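User: Can you help me understand a structure? I only have the sequence.
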Amino acid sequence: MHIYAKLVLSLFIVGSVGCSTNSKQAFDAYTLSECDVGDSCSLTGEIFIARGVPASVANLKLDSAECVALSLPEEAYKNKKLQFSKVRVFGVVYSQPSLFETDIVSYKLLDRMVAVGICETGKVIYVEKIKRF
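Assistant: Let's start by predicting it. Here is the structure, written out as tokens:
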């Protein structure tokens, strides 16, 4: 039993090292300036969705009047209830090229197509979770 207790304690210590010291929880709202490229982030705002080819388009208009591009899962593009709803999205922030700096109109981000020039903040959220209010 003594070895079992050491194993459990070791797993707890190793698991604790990987925990974030950030006081915000996974689904707490951030501001766009707090969302750094490569980090997970949660933002709240009004969502706009348009299905299209070669890429569907989605963006989030924040209360601060800023806009951020979204890369949504396919089922979200089909959900008509989301259109113009207030939502909170959670996902990883990626850098997005400016429409004026590139000659592409869309690109593949992991497993999803994303259109360029939706919002000129230089960021796109690869949405993992979405909550409608």
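Now, to help you interpret it: The first strand starts at residue 40 and ends at 50. Residues 2-17 form the longest helix (16 residues). Let me know which part you'd like to focus on.
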